[in-house]
Amino acid sequence: MTRYAHITGWGMSVPAHILTNDDLAKMVDTSDEWIQSMTGIRERHIAGARESTASLAIDAAVKALSVAGVPARHIGLIVVATSLPEYLFPSTACIVQDQLGASHAAAFDLLAACSGFVYALSVASQMIISGAYESALVIGSETLSRMIDWSDRSTCVLFGDGAGAVVLQSSETPGGILSIALHADGSGGDMLIVPAGGSHLPTSLETIEDNQHSIVMNGREVYRFATRAMVSSTLEVVEKAGLSLDDIRLIIPHQANRRIIESAAKDLELPMDRFAMNLDRYGNTSAASIPIALCEAIDAGRIHTGDHIVMVAFGAGMTWGSSVIKWVAAGPRKASRFVWAQRLMARARSTARRTGRRIGGLIWGE
Ligand code: UT7
Ligand 1: does its nearest atom lie under 6 Å from the Cβ of 153? Predict the structure, then answer.
């Protein structure tokens, strides 16, 4: 039997707090006019003190499970694509696994920066197609606002926080993830980098005083790379699926800069209405940008059964990647009311396990 990996659930979550271009103009030497004309961004959502990469991921995942009507305990695999995990370890995926009560799921994080969701979707879909798993949760979740130098106008205007999630399930029905194309060029690593906090330059008083824990970017170089990568990756993945651009109903590009997407559209000779666009309201949410744009495209009725869509991303690494999906989900199902109850149960289960471990430690410790 040939197996296919279909997207059967989707959900997104963004922090409530909105930071507008005018707000930024009060913080650094910039203007709404410059930001809109150079990037297309009007505003972005910024995580508050009680929000984090894991909390946004969990919120998006709960919604995706609810749409799919799949209980968390039936999920076999959780992959969280993120550039700023909750901790260095444990992985954010393990926190999501615990909080959802996905007690049978393997869980790991994946770092491919803004290409992370496409990379994670590719890995999870191949796990399903190979027969290793029946279902997976793939999440892109980011709180890059916490890695931004808020005095650097060349980067602080670009990024926002958020999360998007999809449920993947195996099926014998042809469709789902049809082709993938992933690439990397590590020689471009210094084009977009957070210099300190890792093994190379561990956190120290100096790294903090020198502000080396924030995003450093060569915008011009990234821009040049991105316009080429978006075009070559789209053409490659469409050809791999045995299709032509005429067969593609919608392209969901990484939402980094409107001009990058317009340049790709021009080179691909496609009108802009074939591209999902929402960066004006969210900015660049890195690995979360594609699943958030997917959710909004579905809600707007832009994706129908039988449509072929392309997801295409680029990011630090440098990495880039794309995927062709034949959409087979019948549309939003009746959301399961039990998902929230399951989440409460998961919390109770997690607390019971921690308490049990503590009591066991006291008994056996003696
Ligand atoms: O997911 C991947 C993430 N990264 C990207 O996708 C970034 C790709 N790159 C870009 O989107 C563009 O490079 C930017 C929008 C970031 C910048 O556009 P640019 O045309 O490459 O501008 P630039 O960096 O060469 O700067 C042009 C001018 C400079 O002033 P001078 O030296 O010409 O006087 C900058 O200082 O614009 C100035 N500038 C700003 N001015 C007002 C840079 N940022 C700002 C700002 N407001 N926020």
Answer: yes
Q: How far is it, in rounded angstroms, from Cα 55 to Cα 52?
A: 5
Check if 34 has its Cβ closer than 6 Å to any atom of ligand 1. yes
State if residue 39 touches ligand 1 by the CB under 6 angstroms criterion: yes
Q: Is 229 in the pocket of ligand 1 (CB under 6 A)?
A: no
Q: Which CATH number fits the domain that encloses residue 14?
A: 3.40.47.10
Residue 170 falls inside a structural domain: yes
**284 Cα nearest atom in ligand 1:** 1
Q: pLDDT tens, 44-94?
A: 999 999 999 999 999 999 999 999 999 999 999 999 999 999 999 999 999
Contacts of 355 (CB under 8 A, 6+ apart): none
**Ligand 1 mean position, distance from CA 266 (Å):** 21
Annotated active-site residue 308? The verdict is no
Please report whether residue 100 resides in a domain.
Answer: yes
The domain tally of the chain equals 1
The DSSP bridge pattern shows strands 135-142 and 77-81 to be parallel
What pLDDT score was predicted for residue 336? 62
CA of 219 to the centre of ligand 1 (A): 6
Q: Are 45 and 16 in contact (CB under 8 A)?
A: yes
Do the domain assignments include residue 44? Answer: yes
* Per-residue confidence (pLDDT) for residue 294, from 0 to 100: 98
Does pLDDT of 332 surpass 60? no
Residue nearest to atom 13 of ligand 1 (CA): 219
Q: How far is the CA of 274 from the centre of ligand 1 (A)?
A: 26
Which range of residues forms the domain containing residue 61? 4-335
Residue bearing the CA closest to ligand 1, atom 2: 315
User: What percent of the chain shows pLDDT beyond 90?
Assistant: 90
Q: Which tens digit of pLDDT belongs to each residue from 13-43?
A: 999 999 999 999 999 999 999 999 999 999 9
Q: Give the tens place of pLDDT for each residue, 178-218.
A: 999 999 999 999 999 999 999 999 999 999 999 999 999 99
Asked if 45 is an active-site residue, the reply is no
Whole-angstrom distance, CA of residue 37 vs CA of residue 259: 9
Inform me whether the pLDDT recorded for 330 exceeds 80. Answer: no
Strand 192-193 versus strand 106-110 pairing type: unpaired
- Protein residue whose Cα sits closest to atom 1 of ligand 1: 315
Tell whether 242 is covered by a domain.
Answer: yes
* Alpha carbon distances (Å) from 120 to 125, 334, 342: 8, 27, 25
Tell me if 107 CB under 6 Å of ligand 1.
Answer: no
Which structure tokens are listed for 269? 């000779």
